[in-house]
């Protein structure tokens, strides 16, 4: 149900490719002035969902509203140019033969205020001194800001970004991402960002939606989803997690990892813990077992530990044990997650 604060409302949307269900009853709301992250693995349906919002794809059931107006129903699709949607593509899609100013003003031809709008956007996005430059002379961060300025030029209700950092790596990726977030915040834009990278999603988003198999697994704030996922699939989308069998009785889940209160009903469940909520201890303290492997990961080492059938992954920033060492593992009870056995 659309609300006054919603700039985009997706209600019960279903999309089929032949007999294949790509979107299956998706509900999603983007509030004004917020950034929503849409996180999922390849094939989860996130890009198809973005394309239905933009007007590049039709839907087979449900409806989509932008700024209170219905733009998509089965058999009725308002074209992209009439939706007040700005798109930022994976490869930025800048016109190589146009300058920065020409790219930003491309969609404003014929408008009397074109020069003023372009100048204002270039100033806002710190591109004024690059107005006459061509795309191939720009850094990755500058190209991203030009693409965003072009998307903002027509005063869209929402900005849609499809895997905006997929072609970037390392420090450049972080720099461009931080630049883009700053620009979105400064512009006050409402935005949906599609990504398969958990770190990008959690750093950028005010609100986060997790997708798998064309369905929404869970939605909420990044911190809530990271600490309180409801399923193994949701937990794993946001980073490494070790999972063991648990049993729920009288509002408490119990496993070899410990106990945690839960609102799940009595019966089988799962309990998960992230590597950062585990620590190594000496023999006789904590859960006892042996080190299986030790891997170097830069700022820390990844230690895989086995206690019978239970295998845990631990991030160790200090001295690490050797393969085969007998050690104990201590667990931060606050880091334990109770996951429903009925969800993947």
Mean pLDDT: 92
Secondary-structure-based class equals alpha+beta
Oligomer: single chain
User: pLDDT under 50 segments (min length 5)?
Assistant: none
Largest sheet: number of strands, sense, barrel closure: 6 strands, mixed
- Give me the count of strands: 21
Coarse morphology:
globular
The percentage helix is 10-25%
Give a verbal description of the structure.
- The mean pLDDT is 92.
- By secondary structure, this protein is α+β, with helices and mostly antiparallel strands.
- It has 8 helices and 21 strands.
- The chain is globular.
- The strands form 4 sheets. A 6-stranded mixed sheet has the order 7-8-9-3-10-11, sandwiched between helices. Strands 2-1-4-5-6 form a 5-stranded antiparallel sheet, covered by helices on one side.
SSE arrangement:
Elements: E1 6-17, E2 20-31, E3 35-40, H1 46-54, E4 61-66, E5 69-73, E6 76-77, E7 85-88, H2 100-104, H3 114-124, H4 140-152, E8 158-162, H5 170-187, E9 191-195, H6 198-204, E10 207-212, E11 215-220, H7 222-227, H8 232-237, E12 242-249, E13 252-255, E14 258-261, E15 267-273, E16 278-281, E17 287-296, E18 301-307, E19 310-316, E20 326-331, E21 337-340
Parallel strand pairs: 3-9, 3-10, 7-8, 8-9
Antiparallel strand pairs: 1-2, 1-4, 4-5, 5-6, 10-11, 12-13, 12-15, 13-14, 15-21, 16-20, 17-18, 17-20, 18-19
Features:
six-stranded mixed β-sheet, five-stranded antiparallel β-sheet, 8 helices, about 20% helix
Summarize this, please?
The protein contains 8 helices and 21 strands. It is of the alpha+beta class and 344 residues long.
